[in-house]
């Protein structure tokens, strides 16, 4: 049943009889200010995302993520570090006003204020302009947050010897792990003098390198144990000459087994 010009009665609804194709709105009257979401804007987003994805993949291939050895709860000398994107919070907890009795300030209050301010920035700065100088509150908060994160991250990373840390905590493949004879008399000497720095399995730690796979003679090992080397101070070994010989024989035997 037809009722009205260009209308059809369908049940209790009225719909147009003439179908029009979905034509994107003409934005030519606003040159350079806006454009159609599909396909213009979305295509640009995809292109930018693809460039960043390719760059990220190239970065991961050129600089693989450093792996460390298995976690050892008995190694009290190891100092764990968070991932790089949390280093600024890690550094913040070193300051007096955010550590000790004020830890809650460092882990909840200050980060909460910072991120809350960024969330409120669009509501605090409601100006119609889109240029940076027309939105001073939002831009100022953003620059302050960015500068703080960069500075705290730099301060945290600058005090870490990353190369030495990676060298002393290299993962040991299962096929290269040496079997440690804890019944060996030299292990008891090692346990008293060296375990705190070099780990219970000679795997090394934050304070000392691994003693597995070293290319040193028995005489050189004895000299290092008594006189030290690099960051290892002298007089770390305080046992008798007999115990020193047992320690050297133990370390040499472990390396001979791992090299087979």
What does this structure look like?
By secondary structure, this protein is mainly alpha-helical. Among the domains are: 86 residues, Helix Hairpins (Orthogonal Bundle), CATH 1.10.287; 74 residues, Orthogonal Bundle (Cytochrome Bc1 Complex, Chain D, domain 2), CATH 1.10.760. It contains 9 helices and 2 strands, in the order E-E-H-H-H-H-H-H-H-H-H. The protein has a two-stranded antiparallel sheet. Helix 3 runs antiparallel to helix 4. The longest helix is centred in the first third of the chain and has 26 residues.
Give a quick set of tags describing it.
two-stranded antiparallel ribbon; 48% helix
Specify the overall morphology: elongated
Rounded to an integer, what's the Rg over CA atoms?
33 Å
> Please, how many helices?
9
Quantity of strands, as a count: 2
Order of strands, main sheet, comes to 1-2
Determine the CATH topology of the domain at 84-169. Answer: Helix Hairpins
Order of SSEs, N→C? EEHHHHHHHHH
The major beta sheet can be summarized as: 2 strands, antiparallel
Query: What is the terminal-to-terminal distance?
Result: 95 Å
CATH architecture of the domain at 84-169: Orthogonal Bundle
- Classification by helices and strands: mainly alpha
Residue share in β-strands: under 5%
| Low-confidence runs | none
Q: Which range best describes the helical content: under 10%, 10-25%, 25-40%, 40-55%, 55-70% or over 70%?
A: 40-55%
């Amino acid at each position: 049943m037809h009722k009205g010009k260009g209308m059809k009665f369908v049940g209790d609804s009225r719909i147009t009889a003439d179908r029009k194709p979905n034509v994107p709105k003409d934005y030519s009257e606003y040159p350079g200010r806006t454009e159609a979401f599909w396909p213009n804007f979305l295509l640009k987003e995809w292109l930018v995302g693809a460039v960043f994805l390719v760059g990220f993949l190239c970065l991961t291939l050129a600089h693989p993520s450093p792996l460390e050895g298995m976690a050892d709860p008995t190694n009290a000398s190891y100092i764990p570090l968070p991932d790089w994107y949390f280093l600024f919070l890690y550094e913040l907890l070193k300051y007096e006003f955010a550590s000790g009795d004020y830890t809650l300030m460092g882990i909840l209050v200050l980060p909460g204020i910072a991120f809350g301010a960024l969330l409120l920035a669009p509501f605090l700065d409601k100006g119609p302009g889109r240029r940076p100088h027309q939105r001073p509150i939002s831009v100022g908060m953003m620059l302050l947050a960015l500068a703080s994160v960069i500075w705290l991250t730099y301060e945290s990373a600058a005090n870490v010897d990353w190369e030495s840390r990676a060298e002393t905590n290299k993962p040991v493949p299962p096929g290269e792990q040496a079997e440690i004879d804890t019944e060996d008399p030299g292990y008891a000497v090692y346990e008293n003098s060296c375990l705190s720095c070099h780990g219970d399995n000679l795997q090394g730690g934050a304070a000392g390198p691994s003693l597995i796979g070293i290319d040193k003679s028995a005489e050189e090992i004895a000299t290092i144990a008594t006189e030290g080397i690099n960051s290892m101070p002298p007089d770390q070994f305080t046992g008798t000459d007999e115990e020193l010989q047992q320690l050297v024989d133990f370390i040499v035997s472990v390396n001979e087994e791992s090299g087979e």
